[in-house]
Specification:
The structure holds two protein chains of two kinds. Chain A is an alpha/beta fold. Chain A has eleven helices and seven strands. By secondary structure, chain B is of the alpha/beta class. The chains are: A alpha/beta, B alpha/beta.
């Protein structure tokens, strides 16, 4: 495995911080009552979206689920796109017709998720199937939570991808809670990736809070898939340090000690310290990056708040493609 | 012009569209070497190979999901449900993903989901259902119901070329019972109804296999001097609403005929449209002839009682003519 260049390490850190700070702004907007509906944070598990998506090539296709905000940022959506989407403005990717990360364009390598997450597994298997039929050198990657991995669609999609030997990577983000239900109520096996054995495919179990480990595991999975050894099941162990959404208080159902334990494993802090310790990065450079990110976000938020709300005439447009 | 069955018409449409467009491919259970449970895909894999005629696991969600993913990637998948009843297993994939993708984020999902539909062949409660109403209350999916061999071919061609998700309901009772001359270049646009028989006293608005029952009933009523107009909707969504209103205005008496159960069935929607937009033309209540509100039973006397038949249509027509 080649060592990451300084530029790549900068990029990884940049997207980790950009995601963290962007979500902080979103939480602020939520608290101000400007975002209606749910706000689902990736706090404490940013490294999975960053590590996996950064490991993909431009031609690869990825579908985010609710906490993969870094994924769409790496694929080229802007912070303004994200603010507009949550604020239901016309300049958002869905022009106010939907919220969260429910958007995507195959032309830019993303496929939209829906609120019911299981379908993305067979759908992204279909993207991988099409890529092979079109003779493209491309992998499809998507995510599922420990909860979503209990759906029938997960099994059907993985099994179909397996018999077809598709270049498809499924990343299970095991953050230990599906809303309030612990993973022990989702599955009797401790490592969800072991389900790969039942499909006859390869798997890996990765420290989801270590962005470099996630990146490296994804590079390996991608190479295997392109050699015809796919699909690949990758489980990233992590923890959801907030509630299911901003409106949810997890202290009601998550033991306090677990929070304490995982706060110490914060993936952003972990990576910042590791880069500073290795002297890849100076404190001054870090502070410069933070400032730049804040400027970008302040500007994007301002533009989003100035963006108009959709016109009621658009309610009936776009049901069918004409 | 050659004489072909309804089933052969569907097979030809698949064959010709696959030949004309390399983006078109077929996936489903046993569709490959076996040629499908009813042989609709017979010979396709031999001609187009395993990559374009894909045998899948028994996984309806995976079939439709993979089709959606491939469609997003620029292909034109045709997914087969071995029996249309099995579509219940992938309802989420269709109603929550395929039907909403364009409205929400502008993604084209040009998939066709087709499969044997309807009763009359003693196939029991899980192999005989009419599922259109499961989907008609979900905006974003087109629903097609051919009644003739020419329409079976022409509508399937239109469905495959359509940039939206299309549910193509092929009536299995008609597969080998309907034979007609079909021109080689037949193409039937979606959303256009057709008058199958001109009449002036009463309109029968119907679709799929019920068109043939309606024709029989019209013959019988004609002997009493009642001239029935038969409108075959062909496509339920998008609906040719103007054609429905036109026939209602013309005859002033309307019977809505469908094979699906009455309660919550499409007839209720059609009745509401006519009542809202052509009430002043009506000369009697809008009536419905439909299946009973039970699961579709297996045994002969039970299934026959359950389904609409010529007698029920004639009875309703005579009652309506008495107004």
């Amino acid at each position: 495995m080649p060592v990451l260049t300084k530029e790549q390490q900068f990029d990884l850190l940049y997207y980790m911080l950009l995601t963290r700070r962007l979500e902080e702004h979103l939480v602020g907007l939520f608290k101000e009552g400007k975002i209606s509906g749910g706000l689902y944070s990736s706090l404490g598990q940013e490294s999975i979206s960053v590590g996996t998506t950064y490991a993909l090539e431009k031609e690869d296709v990825v579908s985010p689920v609710i906490r993969n905000i870094a994924t769409v940022l790496i694929k080229g959506y802007t912070p303004k796109d994200i603010f507009c989407q949550y604020l239901a403005r016309v300049d958002g990717p869905t022009k106010g017709k939907d919220t969260t990360l429910h958007f995507g364009e195959i032309e830019r390598g993303t496929v939209a998720p829906i609120s019911i997450l299981g379908p993305l597994i067979p759908i992204m298997a279909g993207v991988a199937l099409a890529g092979r039929m079109q003779k493209r050198k491309r992998v499809a990657l998507t995510y599922i939570g420990d909860g979503g991995a209990s759906t029938g669609d997960f099994h059907e999609g993985m099994n179909f991808a397996a018999v077809q030997r598709l270049p498809f990577i499924c990343v299970i983000e095991n953050n230990q809670y599906a809303f309030s239900t612990p993973v022990t109520r989702q599955s009797r096996i401790a490592d969800l990736a072991q389900r790969a054995v039942g499909y006859g495919i390869q798997y890996a179990i990765v420290d989801g809070n270590d962005v470099v480990a996630v990146y490296e595991a994804t590079r390996k999975a991608r190479a295997l898939c392109l050699e015809g050894e796919g699909p690949f099941l990758m489980e990233c162990k992590t923890f959801r340090v907030k509630g299911h959404a901003e409106h949810d208080d997890p202290s009601k159902y998550v033991p306090r000690a677990i929070f304490e334990e995982w706060r110490k494993k914060d993936p952003v802090d972990h990576y910042v310290h590791s880069l500073l310790d290795q002297k890849v990065f100076t404190a001054a450079e870090l502070s410069e990056m933070e400032n730049k990110i804040q400027q970008i976000l302040e500007q994007a938020k301002k533009e989003a708040l100035e963006s108009p709300l959709p016109s009621s005439e658009d309610t009936s447009t776009g049901v069918f493609r004409v | 012009m050659t004489t072909i069955t309804y089933l052969e018409a569907i097979r030809q449409a698949l064959f010709e569209e696959m030949e004309a467009d390399p983006r078109v491919f077929v996936l489903g259970e046993d569709v490959g070497a076996y040629g499908g449970a009813f042989k609709v895909t017979a010979g396709l894999q031999e001609k187009f190979g395993e990559e374009r005629v894909i045998d899948t696991p028994i996984s309806e969600s995976a079939i439709v999901g993979a089709a959606i993913g491939a469609a997003l990637s620029g292909l034109r998948p045709v997914a087969e449900m071995q029996f249309i009843d099995f579509i219940a297993c992938c309802f989420n994939m269709i109603s929550n993903y395929a039907a909403k993708a364009h409205y929400c984020w502008g993604a084209a999902i040009p998939i066709v989901i087709r499969g044997p539909y309807g009763g009359g062949v003693h196939a029991g409660p899980f192999h005989s259902q009419c599922v259109e109403s499961f989907f008609l209350n979900t905006p974003g999916i087109k629903v097609v119901t051919p009644a003739t061999a020419a329409d079976a071919k022409g509508l399937l061609k239109a469905a495959i070329r359509d940039p939206n998700p299309v549910l193509y309901l092929e009536h299995k009772y008609l597969y080998r019972r309907i034979k007609e001359e079909v021109s080689s270049d037949v193409f039937v646009p979606l959303g256009k109804a057709i008058i199958r028989r001109e009449g002036k006293h009463l309109s029968l608005v119907t679709y799929s296999a019920m068109v043939h029952l309606a024709m029989e009933a019209a013959e019988e009523l004609s002997r009493d001097g009642v001239e029935v107009e038969i409108l075959d909707l062909r496509t339920l969504s998008p609906l040719d609403e103007e054609a429905v209103l036109q026939t209602a205005r013309k005859t002033s008496k309307v019977i809505l005929l469908h094979e699906a159960p009455r309660f919550g069935g499409f007839g209720g929607e059609l009745a509401a449209i006519i009542a809202e937009k052509a009430f002043e033309y009506l000369d009697g209540p809008i009536m419905r002839v439909a299946a009973m509100d039970t699961p579709i039973p297996f045994g002969s006397p039970l299934e026959e009682t359950y389904l609409p038949d010529v007698k029920k249509i004639v009875k309703a027509a005579r009652k309506l003519m008495d107004y």
